[in-house]
Amino acid sequence: MLTDVTAFAPATVANVGIGFDILGHAVDEVGDRVRIRRIEENVVRIRSITGVAGELPVEPQANTAGRAVQVMHAALSPGFGFELDIEKGIPLGSGMGGSAASAVAAVVAANALLHAPAPQLQLLKFAMEGEIVASGAAHIDNIAPCLYGGLTLTVGIDNPRVKQIPVPRGLRCVLVHPHMYLGTREARAILNINVSRSDYVWQSANLAGFISGCYSNDLEMIRESFNDVIIEPQRHSLIPGFKDVQRAAMSAGALGCSISGAGPAIFAWSAFQHAEAVRGAMVAAFATHDLQSDSWVSLMQNYGARVVKA
Fold this sequence. Notes:
CATH architecture of the largest domain: 2-Layer Sandwich
Helix content: 25-40%
Oligomer: single chain
Number of helices: 10
Low-confidence stretches: none
Structural class: alpha+beta
Number of domains: 2
Order of helices and strands: EEEHEHHHEEEHHHHHEEHEE
Shape: globular
Number of strands: 11
CATH class of the largest domain: Alpha Beta
Mean pLDDT: 95
C-alpha cells in the first residue's frame, strides 16, 4: 500500500458570472500541491506550507487542507495518521479558488493512501468542510470543478448533486490576477440580501441561456447570456479598473468577462483565436491602473485534481 502521495488540484473560476455559488470551472494552468505521508501516530498534522502562501496557519483545524483531512480521518478511521506538506501555487485572496484547491488536493492525496478509497462525492463533502474555514460558508462552486474538472453545476449542499456541463471545444478561459488581495469574507459581506424580481428573472434567464448555449454549441447564446446583473454590480468597485478591463476584453473579442469568484481575478471566455489578444488587452488595462498581473489561458475541457506522484 502507498505511504507517500502528492496530489495536484487546479485553480477555479467560481460563479462564472451568472451562476453565483452554483457554477464553476477548472483552470488547469495553475494550482496547489499537497504531499501526504502515512504516519503511525493516529493524528493529522501539517509539517510545512510553502509556495505563494503568505501567512497560513499550521494548526490543522484552522487550515483548509488540514481541516478537510481531519474530517475525513474522523469519518473513515483508517487506523493511522496523515502528515501534510502544502505547496501553494494559488495566491491567497485571489478569487482563483486557493482554499478549495488546498482542501481538494489534500483529500485526494489522503484518499490514495486508504485501504478502501472513498468515492468522489464523499471527498467533495470532506473538502467542503475545509472550505468553510476560509470563507465561513458552505459552498462548493470552487470545490466541485476542482475535484471533477471542467465546467460544473452543483445543486444542493447537504446532499449535493454535481453535473458536468459541456463547453464548446473552441473556447478558452483567459484568467488575469492583479497583484492585490481581496478576502472572500469581505466580498461576500457587501452583498445585498434582497434581490428585485426583475433582476431575479433576468439573471435566471441568463443562467438558463448560458447553459443551453453550452449544450448546443451556440456561441451567440453564450454571448448574450454572459451578463451578471446581481453580483457583479455590487462587487466590481472592489477591483480597481474592473470596467476598463472588462471593456478591453470585450473589444478584443471575448464572449463575456466577469469577476472570478470573489475577485480580484477577472476571467473572460473567448474563441481560441482571440484568446491571446484578450489576455493582452486585460493585462494592459490593469497596468493603466498601476496594477501588475499574472495571466493564463486555459482549456475548459480539463482534468480535476489527481495524484501526480506516488
